[in-house]
Amino acid sequence: MKRIIFFAGCLAALVGLIWIGQGTGYFPYPAESFMISQMPWAYRGAALMVVGIGAIFWSKRA
């Protein structure tokens, strides 16, 4: 179970990082994405990244 939580946390952190990049306009791919330069997506990405990192730390606890 901890491996699944670890993998889900890694995936969530990666997706959150992509959302931050698209929301701030630093990662404008694909060009037709509705998320580009939309700050609410950057905030959602930051929240998702925090949840993902929290899941990673939680899964590594003994």
Structure, explained:
By secondary structure, the chain is mainly alpha-helical. It has one domain (about 1-60). It has helices at about 1-25, 40-60. Helix 1 packs antiparallel against helix 2. The longest helix has 23 residues, at about 1-25. It is elongated, with a radius of gyration of 13 Å. The protein starts with a helix and ends with a helix. The model has no long low-confidence stretch (mean pLDDT about 95).
How are the SSEs placed, and which strands pair?
Layout: H1 2-24, H2 39-60
First and last CA, distance: 13 Å
Low-confidence stretches: none
Number of H/I helices: 2
Helix/strand order, N-terminal first: HH
**Hey, roughly how much beta strand do the residues contain?**
under 5%
- Structural class, by secondary structure, is mainly alpha
What overall form do the CA principal axes indicate?
A: elongated
- Chain oligomer state: single chain
Mean pLDDT: 95
Q: Let me know the largest β-sheet.
A: none
CA-atom Rg in angstroms: 13 Å
